[in-house]
Amino acid sequence: MNIRLRHDTIVRSLRRNGTSTIAELAEEVGASRRTILRDINALRDEGFVIHSEPGRGGGLQLDPQSVQTTTRLSVAEIFALLISVASMRAAGNLPFSALANAGLAKIEKALPSDKVRDLRRFLDCLYVGKLSPQVDISDMKAIEPTLLPAFETAFLQQRHLSFRYHDAKGVGTTRIVEPQAMLILPPLWYLVAWDPERDAFRHFRMDRISKPKYLQDTSFRRRHVPFEDHVSPVRDLSR
User: Fold this and answer.
1) How far apart are CA 183 and CA 87, in angstroms?
2) Lesser CB count within 10 Å: N end or C end of the chain?
3) Which of 19, 34, 62 represents a domain boundary (last residue)?
């Protein structure tokens, strides 16, 4: 279990149980007592108020009004929230859009300046539109959760992206491309990339992509992507 997941588990356990011992938390997250003590100190540094009651029957208690004072959301996590809202808006299925926009604005204000810069650069690559009713979606599958973290580095650092792709007939190939944009045509999501081997833009359905990996020692230039008239940058939709 990584540090972030362990910290989240500890906070949830303290909120749920009221009082927990170091031994109980160590067993729950599969870590040593020493690791849990370090985690408790780290959570206190983040702003969580955790009381310690020594002796028999004592333990750790989280102040119910306690909240962290620093954001721990990554750019990819915030981007996932933004694109989820954008896709629902594009599909005409966001009844509380004003509240969603206000909440996301508050999250952005809490971010360090470097994360805000990365987030805005990431958003510049996101487009939404309407899916043609002629497109067959009967074979649509879930998108691998590893895609977004790999995309984040590939887009922000302009690294080539390698992945396995299965076309509509199920034929699998390994592709190495220059990621240029993400296109949401609800309910389908596409990676729009320049394919050097074919010397052309290609649209890859994300639910057909697996094993994504950015290539550390390669880079490329941003290209202008020609979209159809019904496609808009996600930034335009939030105004």
Assistant:
1) 10
2) C
3) 62
Assess contact for 208 and 143: CB atoms under 8 A.
no
Nearest Cα neighbor of 183 from 166, 204, 200 is: 204
197 domain-assigned: yes
Closest CA to 192 of 8, 200, 150: 200
Residues spanned by the domain of 10: 3-62
Q: Which residues pair with 179 in a beta bridge?
A: 193
Count: domains in the chain: 2
Instruction: Write out pLDDT tens, residues 143-198.
Output: 998 898 899 899 999 999 999 999 999 999 999 999 999 999 988 999 999 999 99
